[in-house]
Amino acid sequence: MTAASALRRLRASPLARYEPGPPHRAFLESDARFRLLRAPSQSGKTLAAAYETVCRCLGVHPYQDVPPAPIEARVVCHSFKQSVVVQAKVFDMIPSGVLVPDCTFHPTRGFKHSTVTFINGSRVVFVTSEQARLALASATLDLCWMDEVPPPEMYAESVSRLVQTGGCLYMTLTPIGRPVDWLREVVEDGVISETHFALSTKSCPWMTQEQVDEAIAVCLPSQRPQVIYGDWDGVTPDRYFAAFDDDMVSDELPDRELQIGLGIDHGEDVGREVALLCAFERDPKRPRVWFLDEYVSAGKTGIEADALGIVAMLERAGVGPEAVDEARGDTNSAGKSQAGYAINTLLTESIATLSGYPEHSPPFRIKPARKGPGSVVYTSRLLHAAMVKGDMRIHPRCSNLVESFRHWRGPGGDQKNKDLSHALDAARYIGRSFLDTRAGGIQSLRVR
User: What pTM value is reported for the model?
Assistant: First the structure.
């Protein structure tokens, strides 16, 4: 493909329809070899880098001169799930007819073999942070894009793979959830050229002021400096759930059919086994939650005592165990697991027996909570967003949960603060199942 034909294809492609905001354009116009786009969440930073990557693979760039194709590129993401999100943005930028015939994209699995192969010979391989250690070990690259904050040793390894080609590296990130001090020093030393902006209608002209205001409102105050303004550091809040208000505490119950959930945090000591009974309205656009009742252990308890407390809680609410649609329990047994059995299984069997069901056929099963890096912050954000939107109500019987929402200062802290976390953990475990609207159905294979 000649440069002229590539340019014509570019003008007729999704690339031509992309309109960057002022800071995104500044990033695209920069000819620095090492660049950083430090920006708020959901502000278009990944899309800008996807645009940059596809342009360089085609060897034609509207904002600067770039080396001719083909090039060899790597895109490093924190996880496979995040990689698929990034791959989708790259796919949406690729013009038709520029990929080899067997290079296909699936919305939930990404590109075949996580690789984009262009007809002109350019290739982009997507890897996770763990895979990158091997993927970069013997590679000679023209381009490396790192989405979110990499470990410093991975950054150093990536830079070394660009030496022979004089290639470029760029990072797109919101500085939250991982150590950034090393990167901040590199930027301040002038090694990396930085573009930084805050969320606003000027920076992101496709957003309305109402959308910006809502993004600020639903964001946890402790994270606003980073998530909204792209700052290096957050703040230590007086109260993590700043949107909580006593008006949310109400004994009024919805008069329509809802789904029932149980969230359970396991522990041995007084007050450390907490179960929450909830009602949810599962709506893709506006999910709502009512916390109906709680069980809190009065002393050091075993599985049978906890099961009895949970069954009693269900009876107080007039909810039969067969009505529970979903239950989530902590994967940490806190010393209660016996003979290798998972505590959730043992608790499920004990509840079944107390409710008159066979152990092998319980009315519901307690599934393990979905946990992982960043899950505490993410699930707390879901709860906080529900508060801001008026989509959470808490029955006065949930006094432990109310106290935790009022006074918890975030992860860590002194023992008093840690003791407040148990009810919140139970709320987060079950809340994620109903409040998390990030879901993809069965979608078709797509080819370019």
Answer: 0.65
